[in-house]
Amino acid sequence: MRPKLQGNMMHTELPPTSQLEDALALQRQAYLAHPVPSLDERKKDLRTLQRFIREHQDALVAAISADYGHRSRHETLLAEVFPAVDGIDHIISHLRGWMRVQRRGLDWRSFLGASNRVIPQPLGVVGVIVPWNFPLNLSMVPLSYIFAAGNRAMVKMSENSRHLAAYLIEHMPAYLPPEKLQFFDETGGVGVAFSKLKFDHLLFTGSGQTGKAVMVAAAQNLCPVTLELGGKAPAIVCDDFPLPLAAERIMFVKLLNAGQICTTVDHAWLPAAKVDAFVTLARALVAKRYPSLSSPDYTAIIDQRAFERLLVALDDARSRGAQVISLMDGLAFDRASRKIAPHMVLNAPPQSLLLQREIFGPILPLRTYDQLDDVVTSINAGPRPLAIYPFSYDATKVQHLIDHVMSGGVSVNDALFHVGQHDLPFGGVGDSGMGHYHAREGFETFSKLRPVFYQTRFSSLKFLFPPYGKLADWVLRFLIR
């Protein structure tokens, strides 16, 4: 299904369920005809995917920027192109070991020649539902693990990624055939139909609310689901950590993609005496990195609805007595370009929208604490976050936070979570998601770790066949002694 261009707008008719089902049937048939691709075949698919990204990177960057209204070229290269290309190299270097059959011990039974093995085998056809914020990364990185595990894939793009979806739909078939990979555009209702397909596994990245609906739909087919959601990930700056370094690292990540990242710092905890200094440091960093809203390095908010939502949240904080600080000289926002200046918010009450909902924008509330355990109590009172970011050189404090605050992951003394960390699993917990991909865990998520027991010519169970007698009594007493 190829999108049609109407003027400057792309338009795609809603694919009937039959078209999605036909695509699934095509891939299922191909899987059944060749269920276990060899190591060389999998490497070839991975190299082909990597070659597509490299050969089309300029057009892919331009398509993503068009979808945003403006997206920093360097941010797309850093956060989308690099992780996908570099990640494929990592997978290929480890794939032989991941595919290796595991031999498991049988204790005394192994002396009789019996053996146990665990064989990683492809599941079949995997569905991927991709969000708009990092659409290249969050399609290509999962596809890398899906292909590494020997599967085929159908990918549904976001309604906010229309230019990118059109480009992928048009150009990917020259690299990977439809029985291996197909992309679908979202024109309204496609996601619902897609999530109802009988996939062998479904990966969804997006909001918790939509994730619940996807999980309900997938449950009708007993389709296993990996949910990568979000959450209010906190940075926790301890007294011993250098404040300028904390500000530098937190603000870099917070303003990357204008804060539209599921793993970004949602809010920061600071000792009360350090708040004013942190604001001053942050203002200086913004002036150096983004002199004005028109900076080509500063990304726009994805659409008008998200833009208005962020402005409403700032107004709500003001109305509740919070101090709202624009960190950029000049305009605080620009409707024409959908850009919002970096903001900090002090003394926001717990009922404010900024503290109740995931922010997903360039706004950083600062919260103060006297005792570290007060931070622990506050975080644990809410949904479990996708990540926490403790800043401290005191190993005891850091371990205390790791032990007492459950999250999907942890980044110590930085907030750049998982970019380039290909050997760590990625996934949430509770409200921030379930399941993992990336690293070996990604290969295993999209594989069936199939247990196989090989019996010998002579079976010890022969002594336990009915009718039971003294020999069976002796054997059982020996086994459970």
Task: Pick out its properties.
single chain; 481 residues; alpha/beta; Aldehyde Dehydrogenase, Chain A, domain 1; Aldehyde Dehydrogenase, Chain A, domain 2; 7-stranded mixed beta sheet; 6-stranded mixed beta sheet; Aldehyde dehydrogenase; aldehyde dehydrogenase (NAD+) activity; Ald_DH_N; Aldehyde_DH_NAD(P); Ald_DH/histidinol_DH
Description:
The chain has two domains: 4-228 and 446-450, Aldehyde Dehydrogenase, Chain A, domain 1 (3-Layer(aba) Sandwich), CATH 3.40.605.10; 234-419, Aldehyde Dehydrogenase, Chain A, domain 2, CATH 3.40.309.10. Helix content is 41%, strand content 18%. It has 481 residues and is of the alpha/beta class. This is Aldehyde dehydrogenase. It comes from Rhodoferax antarcticus ANT.BR. The active site is at 228, 262.
Write the SSE topology.
Layout: E1 4-6, E2 9-11, H1 17-33, H2 39-55, H3 57-68, H4 73-99, E3 102-104, E4 115-122, E5 125-129, H5 137-148, E6 152-156, H6 162-171, E7 181-184, H7 190-195, E8 201-205, H8 208-219, E9 225-228, E10 234-237, H9 243-255, E11 267-271, H10 275-289, H11 304-319, E12 323-326, E13 333-334, E14 339-340, E15 343-346, H12 353-356, E16 363-369, H13 372-380, E17 387-391, H14 395-404, E18 409-410, E19 433-434, H15 439-445, E20 447-454, H16 470-479
Parallel strand pairs: 5-6, 5-8, 6-7, 8-9, 10-11, 10-17, 11-16, 15-16, 17-18
Antiparallel strand pairs: 1-2, 3-4, 4-20, 9-19, 12-15, 13-14
Helix pairs in contact: 2-4, 2-5, 3-4, 3-6, 4-5, 9-10
